[in-house]
Amino acid sequence: MAKEITPRSEDYSKWYNDIVVKADLAEQSAVRGCMVIKPYGYAIWEKMQHTLDAMFKETGVQNAYFPLFIPKSFFSREAEHVAGFAKECAVVTHHRLMNSPDGKGVVVDPDARLEEELIVRPTSETIIWSVYKNWIKSWRDLPVLCNQWCNVVRWEMRTRPFLRTSEFLWQEGHTAHATAEEAEARTRQMVQVYAKFARETMSLPVIVGHKSPNERFAGALDTLTIEAMMQDGKALQAGTSHFLGQNFGKSFDVQFADKDGSLQYAWATSWGVSTRLMGALIMAHSDDDGLILPPSLAPIQVVMVPIYKTDDERNAVLEKFEEISKALTAKGISVKIDDRDTLRPGFKFAEWEVKGVPVRLAMGARDLANDSMEVFRRDTLEKETMPIEKVAGHIPALLEDIQKNIYRKALDFREAHVEKCDSWEEFQEKIQTGKFLLCHWDGTVETEQAIKDATKATIRCIPVDSYVCEEKGKDIYSGKPSERRVVFAIAY
RNA sequence: CGGGAUGUAGCGCAGUUGGUAGCGCACUACGUUCGGGACGUAGGGGUCGGCUGUUCGAGUCAGCUCAUCCCGACCA
Length: 492
Prior knowledge:
Elements: H1 12-22, E1 26-28, E2 35-37, H2 39-58, E3 62-63, E4 69-71, H3 72-75, H4 79-85, E5 91-94, E6 97-99, E7 106-108, E8 113-120, H5 125-135, E9 144-153, E10 167-177, H6 180-201, E11 206-210, E12 222-229, E13 235-245, H7 247-251, E14 255-257, E15 263-265, E16 267-274, H8 276-285, E17 302-306, H9 311-330, E18 335-337, H10 345-354, E19 359-363, H11 365-370, E20 372-377, E21 382-387, H12 388-416, E22 418-420, H13 424-430, E23 436-440, H14 445-455, E24 458-463, E25 473-474, E26 481-482, E27 485-489
Parallel strand pairs: 3-9, 17-18, 17-19, 22-23
Antiparallel strand pairs: 1-2, 4-8, 5-8, 6-7, 9-10, 10-16, 11-12, 11-24, 12-13, 13-16, 14-15, 19-20, 20-21, 23-27, 24-27, 25-26
Helix pairs in contact: 2-6, 9-12
The structure holds one RNA strand.
């Protein structure tokens, strides 16, 4: 495959789109800004869903489903929330079409205008809290811990596959609690679920932290985030968990009788991750040969490519593959024997590499004679020849090693591109080269905005686990006193 | 919604001063190949984004329009 584009080149966007297309993950749909997720891409998303879903359930969360359409009036109840989403809503105004009077196609039937317009959900806080009002009467009804897997629509001006599409798939959790402490604890708990998922399942190192007020979710008192670094050094917000206070409880009049008989408003959290995680996966791990998938998300973990000239050779190799396939399947490993007769081995090698399959086994007449097999790992591109009987036993440890190695590689990359910075001159230059800069910030929206206007860089988070730096200093821009360092970066 | 660009085969593109539509990849058939994206031969595939105009004649010129992409503002 041609190696014209490298991950840190200026044409990162082209490189990314190239991988999306060649790895057969997604394609552009006829609808502007929307995306068709193809079977291979969707299989990865399904694996993400299953893993996350199990993690949610371990924390007591249950799945539910709420309507796609939200009456417009619901949005006017929470002022900050509506301000955040008003500019990007798809609105349903009619419910019927009719044949065009001029005989050409169909038109909207003017008589079918809805009395109240419906908004296609950009997020479901409003409709869910309108339902919670009926569910929550007593402290005994709390907490309510619901999650839904669904699609949402945000009519963005500019779109990019997986990272920002007009419609996207996601999961949104919405919880109601009796106390602020409990809701805040849930907010922290869920961001840690996301961090664990990113690190262990996606092999993606993330920084957990608070968003600055400027970057907070519309209507939230606090937003926790996981921030990841892509291979061009830019930041990607990969998941968020919001503490919503009593904003929605009050807006939707969700009151309950507390233990002491007093009426209280419920406390809320919401948290979500989307198909944007697919974008993160692509941009964090791929190389010039295509996608590199962590084994825990790979739809196919081991692919077997037979090499042969005659039917006899083919049958002999496939027989060995079947044996190994059975042994691996018994261990819960997903295996594919690529027995397509019309393609040459070299083509198959390249194709499975683009798709990011972690391990490839190849076997031909030469190996057959030696009772050996070639084992190839996608992450390092290393080949190893080993005796056939040892292969099945070797694979589980190899997959585990690949999983860890991909994480290690991404972590090393991030470590090499994070640094402290105390000079505004240095900041302006370094931030453009793809770095996370740990800098002092005076805590004001004005300073953050001024830095953004000057450099496009934003505060990605105020870290709570890695890179925590509680030391006094002077703001990088304003020179005013600062209590701690925060993470600045240019983001997707 | 501002600034820039592009619409020609499934994809990527060429098409000169206006004169009967081309290339590469992909696709179909046959043969030779098969240990890192094979090769040969023969085929199939088009409302040149749309409309209007200029002209004997428009992919090419003009006007309008639609769509897409990139850069801004917005955003997970």
